[in-house]
Each structure stands twice: as C-alpha cells, then as structure tokens.
Amino acid sequence: MTTPEPMPAPAPAAKRPGTVTAAYVIWLIGAILSLIGAIFALVIGIVALTGGAVFGGIYGAAAGSIVLMFAIFVFVLAIIELIIVNRMRDGRNWARITLTVLGILSLLGTAAPWVSSGWNSSSSGGVVGFVIVLLAIILMFLPASNAYFAARASQRY
Q: Which chain regions cross the lipid bilayer (predicted)?
C-alpha cells in the first residue's frame, strides 16, 4: 500500500511593489474625491428637486430630477471605481486594464479642449489632473508592476 504524496506548499504571495502601491494611492484619492463630489451632487439634486417643485412647478421638478438622477449615477460610478481600485491593488489584471481605459478616456477628455480651443489660463488646472492620471497609468505598467500582476495571475490558476 502506498501513501499519497503530500501536497506541495503554496507559493508565497507576490509582494506588492511600491509602483503598484503608488498607483493605488493615486487612484484611491481620485475615487474618494469622486465619491465626495457625488455626495455633494446628491444633496444638490435633492435640494434642486424639492426647490424646483416648490418654486418652479412641474418644470422645476423635472430639472431637479435630472440633477438628482445624474448625482445617483455619479455616486454609483464612484462606488464601482473604489471596488476596481482595490482589485488593482490586489493584483487583478482586469482591474489594471479597466483603470487604464478609464484613465485614457479621462486624458482625452482633459486634452480635447486644449486641442479645440487652444491653451488659456484656465487650462492649468487640467494639467495637474492630466499629469496625475498619466503618472498612475505609467506606474501600473512599469517592470516591477508587470511582474507583480503576472505573479498574482499565476497564483490564481
């Protein structure tokens, strides 16, 4: 009678590099700011709905409800963004790709006014956000980050 061979020890978990942690912090701050903005938008939407109904009749209520629906949409997106950011931190490549796509869309949305109407004094605020999002994307694809995501993927299969 033979005894079964012992199970091999699981591979040690890949240590998260500083590049992924830095990208995580950048995305997390952005997600938290989105959530705070969504909460303010919800309050404004509720005020717009009630104030619009009281002072503007049916048209005021309609305008207020549009603001409120938009605020709810932004709030749900902020929660989803928080979930995706945390999955990226844990080494989920799909989350890294999703954040990259969202980041590129954000970059395009920020740069579009510069292309269409040129540079002006109000463009400088967008530059900061542009650089921060670009930095977060680059950090997620540096060699140490790539190795981390590859190691995490191989541990799951």
A: 24-49, 61-85, 97-115, 127-151
